[in-house]
Specification:
Strand content of chain A: 15-25%
Radius of gyration of chain B: 16 Å
Number of helices of chain B: 3
Radius of gyration of chain A: 32 Å
Number of helices of chain A: 20
Structural class of chain A: alpha+beta
Number of strands of chain A: 22
Mean pLDDT of chain A: 78
Helix content of chain A: 40-55%
Order of helices and strands of chain B: HEEEEEHEEEEEH
Largest sheet of chain A: 6 strands, mixed
Structural class of chain B: mainly beta
Helix content of chain B: 10-25%
Distance between the termini of chain B: 32 Å
Strand order of the largest sheet of chain A: 14-18-19-17-16-15
Distance between the termini of chain A: 55 Å
Largest interface: A-B, 29 and 29 residues
Largest sheet of chain B: 5 strands, mixed
Oligomer: heterodimer
Strand content of chain B: 35-45%
Low-confidence stretches of chain B: 4-10, 165-169
Low-confidence stretches of chain A: 1-5, 133-139, 230-267, 471-482, 662-671
């Protein structure tokens, strides 16, 4: 049992390392100059492939090992200058990087690998036209598959499998993967018995007879299959599987399910690698904290003379400072460089610009800016969408660019930096920009604005974030397949952030994503409704104002709207939505907090209290998710306050309005 | 704040088919729950209400940094309301829900006793209808001439608190 658990730990490490290695391969492949490849880059790709192959072989993922072997061989030949690098080859290897990602993901979740898919890509790699520099050396070496299964008593006959392998290795290159499934628990193991069997992938220019000769001495004491070429793999697997298949599956499943006991299973990886410096900082701080606490407790037990009181005050101050630092450092552990997301983008730009026939240079800066892991995982898709958008609609074709007097190669610049308590990610392109007239026409066409509406240019730009507005003139397969900027915005707003757009026709477009540093902590604004205190995100507040009730009009007797700047925003009476008793219900006595919940809304509250950083605690831990609440937090006095989830609240409020057309709806909620 | 460690309870009696029950009062009735489920007993403290939840979900309290929901058993069983006073307690239980242990508080008028109950002494619950579904009751037992209703606490909490319910009661 202990053995199984350890193996699964190693599996996870293998998966993580392989994924990292794939990223290394991808990044280096993309940076390759096909005509004049730098040997170091080729070497890096080769080494990354090699370590994936090695790991896969060691842990018995023979499919992955086999496949990587082909990739590795390919680059090995380039490395040794037996073969020239071609664009075709780089593309095929990039494709196999994707394929390996898929294989690793499947193996990780214990699902089957689609063998046909893998075989297809593998075939593509093998069939690459051999643009060799010296044709003669390029001869495919036959690849053998040997399944070697010694009988239990094998070791007692004085034979040593290792010696056999060593001799084999002298003939050619080989890849061995051991079958560990028959291995008994340690206490039940007989050191004189052989429990292992091996799959050997052997590339050498030898005949079957040569290999058979190697095993001649042990022929009687083992089960041996030697096969050539492709079809033998399933065959051999079936043999091995037939005997031990069921057990093996159990071994793989058990540890993973046991390990995930306390956590919800999710696709996102649950481990992070942390810079040791961060951990050291944390350890030091905890040390400081322990010292301060002991100082405090010593003072607390002595008589309280005035001079001690002063010392006590100092100690408390120190404790406060240490605690704050400790909190900061602890949160810091969850922070990862945004580069984890940025890494994905060069590949996207590479593929897309080729398929669109555009020339684009991607500039990344601020890669080291750190952001919470959870935020990081959730901004990937919005960023990909915005980059696609910039490529598809922003950057013009080389011909158009030349006609407009621009450089043929367009630039998409991605930058991230800190601003206040937020992270800003900016996507800037030097493309065609947003045409305000086109947007305006489209918005009118879609009934989003009236013909008579006078809008500023920036208001027009912001129209693209409205649901139902897609900027694509036609479905292009790249972006604009019904998923528009509104989805990007709602994803970012869900994270507690915000998106802004600025554009100048003919010059380019800039999208700025404002993101919270972390999801565990939020800059909160405390508000009071009746006796209850709620927390709203400070970042989403546009302004708060005394209500002039003459600016409030009722729609259908119930639905209230407030005239704000150039438009009308819905007024959400929090006391009604939340059924709070004893709250102020007169508009003129309340305050209206105008917020961005994906669209503008006004919240009617009794009072606005202080601002403070709050630690977000999930209600789901011991209860369940409540629509319109993002969680709860513990205030300074130890009481609990609910944190409002604005998009959720808006949705809930709209649904309530829809279902309850009768004026008694509010009364129903509050019972 | 009585911490009860489960290991203390694994006595020889237990193995002989005896279970220990903590009993508490709701009005004149006495209910019992398996003591191994009880984490601690706290005196009543004001809760923070959660909007749009059934009325028997009183709200949440801060239990040493953990947000714990509190259920009013009187309202849950549709008994008449009582004022919260000095003997009112929150019994904090740990129950299993979808493979996770959840901490939940239940408000009772007062805690009463800890009884050892032999398995044979628990009789089946007659189908009585009403607010308490029979599946929430493990059985009935009689101690010192009084009837004690032994609750199936996991089922009760799972169905009343953690499962999705219509938002208006």
């Amino acid at each position: 049992m202990a053995l199984d658990l350890n193996m699964s730990q190693f599996h996870d490490i293998f998966f993580e390392e392989s994924i990292e290695n794939l990223e290394v391969m991808e990044a280096n492949l993309l940076s390759l100059d096909i005509a004049r490849p730098e040997p170091e880059v080729i070497n890096t790709v080769f080494r990354a492939a090699h370590s994936i192959k090695g790991g896969a072989g060691t842990f018995g993922f023979s499919d992955i090992a086999d496949f990587t072997h082909v990739v590795e061989t390919c680059f090995d030949e380039v490395r040794e200058q037996k073969r020239a690098l071609t664009r075709l080859m780089v593309d095929a290897v990039l494709e196999s990087v994707d394929c390996l990602r898929y294989m690793i993901a499947q193996s990780k979740s214990g699902q089957d690998i689609d063998k046909d898919k893998v075989a297809g890509i593998r075939q593509k790699l093998i069939a690459l036209p051999a643009a060799t520099q010296s044709e003669a050396t390029q001869q495919p070496t036959p690849s053998w598959h040997i399944y070697f299964h010694p009988h239990d008593y094998f070791l007692k006959t004085g034979n040593d499998p290792y010696r056999l392998f060593r001799e084999l290795a002298e003939l050619g290159e080989m890849q061995i993967s051991g079958q560990l499934d028959r291995l008994p628990p340690l206490q039940g193991m007989d050191p004189e018995l052989c429990y292992l069997s091996w799959h050997i992938q052997f590339s050498a220019d030898v005949a079957r007879g040569d290999i058979e000769e190697m095993f001649e001495w042990v022929d009687e004491d083992c089960e041996l299959h030697i096969e050539l070429g492709g079809e033998r793999r399933q065959h051999a697997d079936r043999r091995a599987g037939g005997r031990t298949g069921g057990r093996r599956a159990d071994d793989m499943q058990l540890p993973t399910s046991a390990a995930s006991g306390g956590q919800l299973p999710g696709q996102e990886s649950n481990s992070i690698r942390v810079n040791t410096e961060k951990v050291d900082n944390l350890v030091n701080l905890v040390g400081e904290l322990v010292i301060t606490v002991s100082m405090l407790s010593r003072f607390a037990s002595t008589n309280r003379r005035p001079v001690d009181r002063e010392k006590l005050k100092q100690s408390v101050e120190q404790l406060e400072r240490n605690t704050r630092d400790l909190q900061e450092q602890t949160l810091n552990i969850r922070m990862l460089p945004i580069d984890f997301v940025f890494q994905r983008l060069p590949r996207l730009v590479h593929d897309l610009s080729r398929s669109l026939g555009k020339q684009v240079e991607l500039k990344l800066s601020g890669n080291a800016t750190e952001i919470d892991k959870t935020v990081l995982e959730k901004i990937g898709d919005p960023l990909v969408h915005l980059i696609r958008n910039a490529l598809d609609h922003g950057i013009e074709t080389p011909a158009e660019r030349e006609a407009a007097g621009k450089e043929k190669v367009g630039v998409i610049a991605l930058e991230s930096y800190h601003e206040g308590g937020n992270i800003v990610v900016q996507i800037r392109d030097d493309g065609a920009g947003i045409d305000p007239e086109a947007i305006r026409r489209k918005a009118i066409e879609k009934d989003l604005i009236n013909v008579s509406d006078e809008l500023t240019e920036s208001q027009i730009h912001n129209l693209i974030f409205l649901p139902g507005f897609s900027t694509a003139n036609e479905i292009s397969g790249v972006s604009g397949r019904g998923v528009g900027a509104d989805v990007v915005r709602s994803n970012i707003v869900e994270l507690g952030g915000n998106v802004k757009v600025a554009s100048q026709k003919g010059i380019g477009t800039t999208f700025s994503l404002y993101l919270p540093l972390t999801l565990a902590i939020m800059d909160g604004q405390l508000i009071r409704v009746g006796e209850d205190i709620f927390v709203i995100s400070l970042l989403s507040i546009i302004e708060s104002t005394q209500i002039d009730s003459s600016l409030v009009s009722a729609v259908a007797g119930k639905y209230e709207v407030y005239r704000y700047r150039d438009g009308y925003i819905p007024v959400i009476r929090l006391h009604e939505v939340f059924g709070v008793q004893g709250a102020n219900t007169a508009l003129d006595d309340g305050l209206l907090v105008i917020m961005d919940a994906g669209r503008r809304i006004g919240l009617l509250v009794d009072d606005i209290l202080g601002q403070q950083q709050v630690v977000i605690k999930s209600l789901r831990t011991n209860f369940r998710q409540i629509e319109s609440l993002a969680g709860a937090t513990i205030l300074g006095d130890g009481t609990v306050a609910m944190i409002i989830d604005l998009p959720g609240l808006l949705e809930f409020w709209l649904a309530e309005n829809e279902s309850a057309n009768t004026p008694s709806a509010a009364a129903e909620i509050s019972t | 704040m009585t911490e009860i460690s489960p290991t203390d309870m694994l006595s020889a009696e237990q193995q002989a088919g005896t279970s220990q029950f903590l009993t508490f009062k709701l009005g004149a009735e006495e209910y019992g729950i398996d003591i191994l489920k009880v984490q601690e007993i706290r005196s009543w403290e004001p809760v923070t209400t959660i909007p749009n939840t059934p009325d028997y979900v009183l709200g949440v309290v801060n239990l040493r940094g953990t947000i714990v929901p509190v259920m009013d058993l009187r309202r849950r069983f549709q008994l008449e309301q009582a004022e919260f006073h000095t003997t009112t307690v929150i019994i904090v239980v740990k129950i299993e829900n979808e493979g996770h242990l959840r901490t939940v508080g239940m408000v009772a008028d007062a805690v009463s006793e800890v009884y050892n109950v032999v398995g044979d002494a628990i009789s089946e619950t007659p189908d009585i209808g009403g607010a308490i579904n029979v599946e929430f009751i493990r059985g009935l037992t009689t101690i010192d001439e009084k009837m004690i209703i032994l609750l199936e606490i996991d089922a009760l909490v799972n169905a009343g608190l953690l499962a999705e319910l219509p938002s208006s009661p």
